Amino acid sequence: MSDRKLDVLRPTAGAAGAPMLQGTLDLMVLKTLETMGPQHGYGIARRIEQISEQALSLNQGTIYPALLRLCQRGWIRAEWGTSENGRRARFYSLTRTGKAQIGQETENWERVAATMARFLVRSE
């Protein structure tokens, strides 16, 4: 394992107040956009809920601050468009920087998961 520290100590709100590790939502949003292409915030939230098999429930107070943060970091961009039901909506898409960031975020998550797995299998 590298000497790089894991940024997982500050939980963020997830399903029904359940904690989510810092950065987890960012990676879920990035992967959703990578898989599905441009989406509006509501669509991103519903897709994350679907993939999590309803283990996560993302409200506006969770998804939109994350989307703003990702835009500010330059990992995604937002453009106005028209949703399926004819309403005006902001559509989010990955930037080149965001595509590259997926690899780094995935590596970080794999380190976190491997670290937790070591704790869970020990019976000392």
SSE series: EEHEHHEEH
What oligomeric state do the depicted chains represent?
single chain
Residue runs with pLDDT of under 50 for 5 or more positions: 1-17
Specify Rg, calculated over alpha carbons: 16 Å
- The CATH architecture can be named as Orthogonal Bundle
Number of folding domains?
1
Q: Structural class, from helix and strand content?
A: alpha+beta
Largest sheet: 3 strands, antiparallel
Helix-strand layout with pairing:
Elements: E1 12-13, E2 19-20, H1 24-36, E3 39-40, H2 41-51, H3 60-73, E4 76-82, E5 88-94, H4 96-121
Antiparallel strand pairs: 1-2, 3-5, 4-5
In words, what does this structure look like?
The protein starts with 11 loop residues before the first strand and ends with a helix. A three-stranded antiparallel sheet has the order 3-5-4. The protein has one domain (12-121): Orthogonal Bundle (Arc Repressor Mutant, subunit A). Helix 1 crosses helix 2, helix 1 (24-36) crosses helix 4 and helix 2 (41-51) crosses helix 3 (60-73). The model is unreliable at 1-17 (pLDDT under 50). Strand 4 and strand 5 (88-94) form a beta hairpin. The radius of gyration is 16 Å and the shape is globular. The protein has 124 residues and is of the alpha+beta class. It has four helices and five strands, in the order E-E-H-E-H-H-E-E-H.
